Amino acid sequence: RLGKIASIMLVVLAALLAVACAAPVDVPSQVHINLGDNEGTSMVVTWITQSTTTGVVHYGTSSSSLSSSAKQQDAAKSYTYRSYYESSSYTSGLIHHVNVTGLSPDTVYYYTCGDDQAGTSQVFSFQTPTPVGSTDKPLVINLIGDLGQTSDSMSTLDHIRQDTTAHMTLLVGDLSYADSANKATPGHNCTQRRWDSWGELIEPTFANQPLMTLPGNHEVEQSGPAPATQEQFVAYQARFKMPFESSGATNGNLYYSFNVGPVHIIMLNSYMDFTYNSDQYHWLEADLAKIDRKVTPWVMCNMHAPWYNSDVHHHNEPEELGMRAAIEPLFHQYNVDVAFAGHVHAYERMFPTYQNKTDPTATTYINIGDGGNREGPATGYFPQPEWSAYREPAFGHGRLEVFNATHCHWTWHKNVNKQATVSDDVWLIKNSHLNKHDHGLTHVGMRYDGAFAVVA
Predict the structure, then answer these.
(1) Which of 243, 194, 200, 252 lies closest to 218, judged by CA?
(2) Is residue 251's pLDDT more than 50?
(3) Active-site residue (options: 159, 313, 314, 343)
């Protein structure tokens, strides 16, 4: 009898061992996606593992049939960072990027990522944007800046995730607030490991919706002499793979452009050389010159440091004044419609402005550096300038709905008791449509008929 019991126990142990051996050992974490080209026909899937260097994305238009696959082209890599204020270096997990190409526009796809032997993720989904140049359906873009990873950040992400009509989110700098270049201060916990906690925080939202980013001052992450890491933007460059190559840019994720629906979107860097002889300036000038306004009638530019700001915080910093002096004439020459910025932890919408004066033919500027960061809303203002239309120091996010070649609907949603409350609500209408001027936008309230004509 004892022999029989021993035999049964051996069978049970063998079965348990087989299950343990078959269990995933390196499941992907920190999954997020972004557009993989400047035409909206591919999607980059990014994730992190601890030991697995290979990867594949299985995808399809049904969650029960992921019949297509895209293999990882290059082995996953980690990066190492040493802060001047820390005695040891941080080494990241292995970062995977897979570009899924040949996607159809305006289509819902389901996918998993990982390694078939080491472990795969749960099934996520995303919707590709509308075709480039198309105005058959509205294009919806959420915009945030200075996100961080606080309870307010979580509220902002919850509100974005609840907007099932959105095609993507733009994040205009200051992502994780890891700040490993800076000395730790109470409550700030400045360490590269905060990139990992931030990656986990955003996964439920941005594994299912493309996140397009640009760097802010908190992504620079370089301070002090060696042995501290001397290269800037190390973590930011490693953890993302934006479509810079398809826009002719050569500096990785630092600046690039892409088309989506009827909009050409440009992402700039306030914290690298932007002067007349810089690579960034020459690239921007060439990018603006080749835009076909018949295909993408809307042109949006984004940067971190705002050129116009009536808040007392981050007012007239060198990156703001210097970049404005160098590049604002290009914006005016090529009729950039709207520009978004962060950095200041408050919301502010400007009327069309050029060279510090309202100009109906100029660019509309909107500051949205209020995603939920650890530093709190930036209260305190100078007397309101003529170019400042609306301002409020509160956390939240913006939503831009592009209806056609002449009309956009802009709303800013502030976080009130964890609810998204619309606090600023305007239509941005091309002056050419209103027979006012050839360029520029008119900001108008919500009173419209079905044909978007202004009613009295």
Answers:
(1) 194
(2) yes
(3) 314
Other CB atoms within 10 Å distance of the CB of residue 409: 19
The candidate with the shortest Cα–Cα distance to 373, out of 238, 211, 172, is: 172
Is 397 marked active-site? Answer: no
Q: Report the first-to-last Cα separation within the chain, whole angstroms.
A: 95
Beta bridge partners of 103: none
Percent of the chain past pLDDT 70, that is, above it, reads 90
- For tokens 């009898």, the residue is 1
Question: Cα(39)–Cα(26) distance, rounded to whole angstroms?
Answer: 33
Q: Given a cut of 80, is residue 451 above it in pLDDT?
A: no
Residue 159 scores a pLDDT above 80: yes
Alpha-carbon distance values, 147 to 157, 312, 368, 374 (Å): 9, 20, 10, 9
Give pLDDT, residue 455.
Answer: 31
pLDDT band with cut points at 50, 70 and 90 for residue 222: confident
Residue 7 pLDDT > 90: no
440 alpha carbon, distance to own chain's centre = 26
Percent of the chain with pLDDT over 90: 77
